[in-house]
Specification:
Layout: E1 2-4, E2 9-16, E3 21-26, H1 32-38, E4 43-45, E5 58-60, H2 61-68, H3 71-84, E6 89-95, H4 97-112, E7 118-123, H5 131-141, E8 145-150, E9 173-176, E10 186-188, E11 214-215, E12 218-219
Parallel strand pairs: 3-6, 6-7, 7-8, 8-9
Antiparallel strand pairs: 1-2, 2-3, 4-5, 9-10, 11-12
Helix pairs in contact: 2-4, 3-4
Length: 225
C-alpha cells in the first residue's frame, strides 16, 4: 500500500500472477490536499528520479510534487518484485489526479526499467505536460498509453486544464461518446496527437459534468477490495 501523509498520495502495488503483471494503481482526488495539488497549475521543469526528458520538458507542479513524494518507494517495490518475478510486465492506472500520477509513474518505470514491457491506462486524466513532455510520452509508449475520456453534451471533465496555460495531452485518447460503454461508442483517436480535434477536444468546457465520475459503467470511488 502507498500512503504518503504529506501529499496525501495514495494507491497500491499488486501482482497478478495469472497475467504475469505488476500493477501500480494510484488514487484520484478525494481530500482537500488533493484538490490543492490539482490547482498548482504552474508548469515546472520535469525532474523526477531516473528520468531524462528532452530539453524544454515541463510538467504540472502539483502532480509532479505528489508523484515525487512516492516515486522512490514505488520504484523500490517494483524493482524487488521484478527481481523476484522475472518476465513480468508493468501496468499503471488511475482516475483523474490518479491518471496524471499514473502517467508519471509509467514514464518513471519505463526509464528505470527500460527492458520491461509497460502499459498505462488512465481515466479522465487532466492535461499533465507541456507539448515537449507530451511528445516524449508518445515516443516512449506509442499505442501502449491508453487515455480514456467520457465526455458528453457540453460538459468536459472537471479535470480539463486549458491549453492556454501551455498544457497538452499525450496520446492515445479513447473517447467514449455517448453512453453506454460499448465498442461502437468508443473511438480510438490519433496515435500521435493527444489533442485530436475530432475527439474530446471538440467539446468546449462549460462546467463540471457527471461524465467525469463514471467510466465503463463503474463509478469513481467504487470499492473492490
Amino acid at each position: 500500500q502507498i500512503d504518503q501523509l504529506l501529499t496525501d498520495t495514495q494507491g497500491f502495488i499488486v501482482r497478478d500472477d495469472g497475467r504475469k503483471e505488476i500493477v501500480v494503481a494510484l488514487r484520484g482526488s478525494t481530500s482537500p490536499t488533493d484538490f490543492l495539488l490539482d490547482n498548482e497549475l504552474f508548469l515546472v521543469p520535469f525532474i523526477t528520479p531516473g528520468v531524462s526528458p528532452p530539453l524544454g520538458s515541463l510538467v504540472h507542479t502539483g502532480f509532479v510534487t505528489a508523484w515525487n513524494s512516492i516515486a522512490l518507494q514505488v520504484i523500490s517495490v517494483v524493482r524487488a518484485q521484478l527481481n523476484a518475478h522475472p518476465g513480468y510486465s508493468l501496468v499503471t492506472t488511475g482516475h483523474s489526479l490518479g491518471g496524471s500520477l499514473s502517467s508519471l509513474a509509467a514514464i518513471s518505470l519505463r526509464q528505470n526499467f527500460p527492458k520491461v514491457p509497460i502499459r498505462m491506462y488512465t481515466y479522465g486524466q487532466p492535461r499533465t505536460f507541456n507539448a515537449v513532455s507530451a511528445q516524449f510520452i508518445n515516443s516512449q509508449f506509442g499505442t501502449n498509453a491508453f487515455r480514456s475520456w467520457l465526455l458528453m453534451g457540453f460538459f468536459r471533465a472537471a479535470s480539463s486544464i486549458s491549453t492556454v496555460l501551455g498544457y497538452r495531452h499525450h496520446g492515445v485518447e479513447y473517447w467514449q461518446n455517448p453512453d453506454p460503454a460499448t465498442p461502437g461508442n468508443v473511438k480510438q483517436c490519433s496515435t500521435t496527437n493527444g489533442e485530436d480535434p475530432t475527439c474530446s477536444a471538440s467539446i468546449p468546457f462549460l462546467g463540471i459534468g457527471p461524465s467525469h465520475l463514471t467510466y465503463y459503467g463503474i463509478a469513481a470511488g467504487t470499492a473492490f477490495c
